[in-house]
Design goal:
The protein is built from 6 helices and 7 strands, in the order βαβααβαβββαβα. The chain has a 5-stranded parallel β-sheet with strand order 2-1-3-6-7, with helices on both faces. Strands 4-5 form a two-stranded antiparallel sheet.
Length: 172
């Protein structure tokens, strides 16, 4: 049994996107996984102000008190995280970007070389298994997003069935 967090970064209430995320959640749950969903457009998440309090003054705790705390707790709770977003101007939604900018409390400020890349040491003794699910993606978009998100379990598009994505999550 896995704990799966689905982070829905769709800024619009769009039936096809929402239906896909709901179906993915249902299929993943039916495979004996515990699933939680967070819809970013329903959350109050401020921009990161770059104060580094989460590293220097209050290690692991962001100075901004808003709904991002729930998302950080979800990351720590989950065995697998699915970040779902439509592509807007060739990139993930601003909601996903804003939330992703604020995950730095989950790592230490210290760096190491990991797979020929500089990476931060994780604050918690766990690996963040992240899958990125995109709507309307093309190969060039996927290349850019994979560089931003770094090492992820998968980058899938909604052109693939929810069954395929649920299978991938379950067998990761």
């Amino acid at each position: 049994m896995k704990k799966v967090l689905i982070v829905n970064g769709n800024p619009r209430v769009e039936s096809a996107f929402e239906d896909y995320c709901d179906r993915l959640s249902s299929l993943t749950s039916s495979q004996n996984n515990e699933v939680r969903e967070i819809t970013l457009r329903q959350k109050d998440i401020a921009d990161c102000i770059g104060c580094y309090s989460c590293w220097l003054k209050t290690p692991g705790i962001c100075a901004i008190k808003d709904d991002q705390e729930e998302i950080l707790k979800g990351y720590v709770w989950a065995d697998f995280i699915v970040v779902a977003s439509p592509l807007i101007m060739g990139f993930v939604s601003s909601l996903v970007k804003k939330s992703h900018d604020r995950v730095i409390p989950l790592v230490h400020p210290f760096l190491k070389i990991d797979n020929d890349r500089m990476a931060h040491y994780p604050r918690y003794d766990k690996k963040y298994n992240i899958g990125v699910l995109l709507d309307n993606a093309e190969n060039d978009d996927i290349d850019i997003i994979s560089k931003i998100f770094g090492e992820v379990a998968f980058i899938k598009t909604m052109a693939q069935s929810a069954e395929e994505v649920a299978y991938e999550i379950n067998n990761f």
